[in-house]
Amino acid sequence: MHNFNSGPSILPQEVLTEAAEAIHNFNHTGLSILEIGHRTNWFGEVMTEARYLVKEFMQLGDDHEVLFLHGGATAQFMQAPMNLLDTDETAAYCDNGIWGSKAIKEARLFGNVNVVSSSKDKKHTYIPKDFFVPEDSKYLHYTTNNTVEGTQWHHIPATTVPLVADMSSDIFSRPMEFSKFALIYAGAQKNIGAAGVNLVVVKKEVLGKVKRPIPTIMDYGNHIEAGSLLNTPPVFAVYVSMLTMRWIKKEGGLEEMEKRSRQRAEFFYNALDTLPLFKPIVAIEDRSWMNAVFIIEKPELEKQFLEQCKENGMIGIKGHRSVGGLRVSMYNALPICSLEALVDLMKEFNNKFA
Amino acid sequence: MHNFNSGPSILPQEVLTEAAEAIHNFNHTGLSILEIGHRTNWFGEVMTEARYLVKEFMQLGDDHEVLFLHGGATAQFMQAPMNLLDTDETAAYCDNGIWGSKAIKEARLFGNVNVVSSSKDKKHTYIPKDFFVPEDSKYLHYTTNNTVEGTQWHHIPATTVPLVADMSSDIFSRPMEFSKFALIYAGAQKNIGAAGVNLVVVKKEVLGKVKRPIPTIMDYGNHIEAGSLLNTPPVFAVYVSMLTMRWIKKEGGLEEMEKRSRQRAEFFYNALDTLPLFKPIVAIEDRSWMNAVFIIEKPELEKQFLEQCKENGMIGIKGHRSVGGLRVSMYNALPICSLEALVDLMKEFNNKFA
User: Fold this and answer.
1) CB A105 to CB B216 under 8 A?
2) ipTM score of the complex?
3) Which residues span the domain enclosing B177?
4) What is d(CA A151, CA A169) in angstroms, rounded to the nearest whole number?
5) Count of H helices and E strands in chain B?
6) For chain A, what is the domain count?
7) HSE-CB for B112 with a 13 A CA cutoff
8) Which has fewest Cβ within 10 Å: A200, A246, B65, B117?
9) Are residues A42 and A177 in the same domain?
10) Tens of pLDDT along A118-144?
11) Residues B253-303: tens digit of each pLDDT
12) What CATH number does the domain containing A259 carry?
């Protein structure tokens, strides 16, 4: 199978093998990873290693803390402003896609939202770069990669206000100056691991400043104090994250992931640009290295193309229901040979129907 | 290994076998359960079956909806009052143990809490039965089984106000008149499956009545509308829940689970009552069939006893850090032979040291 799913998505084969083994016998304990207490040393070591690897990848010091929390990014749309934005304060948000728009909707429940940039005018097919962030904004929120629309920030926005980023769909695909961020969050089900856990990286100095009472489980500060073991964590999902990060490290870390991402993206966009039947719909300089979104020039052929993909064991190529068209997701674990097989099929299809 | 963990805890061997197989190859798809999209028919069938089995076990009609949500019961301590209790309203709460107390703390952030009954005077070693619930209470909240203290409600409190129950540690261990409840929630990591998902059963008529704006992901109504697929769910944890419920059904359903629970509890408490060295500390009529909490009359022997347990492959017997002493958890998947082995060891220890 060639797995182009947008998330949950492909994971490294050896991660799957180890995860399955741990369901039978975790770390030679004679117990399943599903049956061990979260306060045992057994799991404590998993959580510690997972948190440590994030710090190592991100080159973070003691100013930042790493948490693995229940839920997906959608929970963070709410939890971030709940912790950071007071009722009478204003946060700046970039509206660059469906997920950014959802984050804005939730933030409005907690304070004022200033949408400082929007790409709605062109259906979110580009990233506006020239926008103004008032210096008294509590923070600037943006989505580093727009999974649905296929755009990606290839730089960090220049601003003096604290940066908050949803990195769900491109985290660990490249080195970044992660220490610049006040808050980073990411659902695990793309490059981190399996669905059911959120990675949250927070700069401690931004916490404890809002006046509202925060429910215990929603307060980042409580999770930091408890070493990310405030309540029973999603044990297995954290374990799979740890395994996936071990794999990233072994393969060469974020530098190697970036090299592979670039290879995959260049190879695939090059094909898209040369095959007349297929048409990328995103501004060239903003193309996502994770999710290539495109259409077939003759839309009546889309169904047939998707069927041929399926017959050839290629899945996950249908575009998001809100956008339509086609989408090819190219996360860390996707081997280039999957893209080669797909491009071969696209060439054949192009030659037949262009 | 004999697994007496309080949660995450023992699961049926065949559930573990199937879960591990699905990590390699889910349902003959050639894909891992960790790699499939949550909006595929593949996963849709898992979610549908899981929700259906809950309704079947609980004998619920269309008035109730079944959801599988991110997080554990701690999230529900907050989410329940957020959805049900307005700022100027009062909910009645039973304070029968550490988890009930935590639920009370969270509810106070959303409205008024009337603690109608408390067993704090005797360190939560019993369940008060004679208490008054004002008729204008928005709901009555209680914890059906107190995992930490080892007490359990063996009846449903008689009241005319809507019932809200945290059933995390005894759900699916017995048939109950589940339709009597306005809201039931339970973290999965005891009788339902693996850590990382919450079962929520809600009577639709109680929703949509509070004035506060509810964050999208916290609103039960949104989850109902989306068929429990509002955002990426914790796919694997839902799958393990479904497998565990299939196992319960195959074994004979909640009636059979109750029979086995009774057998286990009678066998173990009988041993406790006859061995002078070990002393149950909970009111006899309120003893939990899930978690037997007890002490050693000579506390200096506790460490030695726990070491002997460990040497004999018996784990999870240390009491909760807030209570101390010893605790033996006897969830659905625990075979009676594990208890027999433990009781043999206890007899030996008793004969040596009593």
Assistant:
1) yes
2) 0.97
3) 14-251
4) 11
5) 9, 14
6) 2
7) 8
8) A246
9) yes
10) 999 999 999 999 999 999 999 999 999
11) 999 999 999 999 999 999 999 999 999 999 999 999 999 999 999 999 999
12) 3.90.1150.10
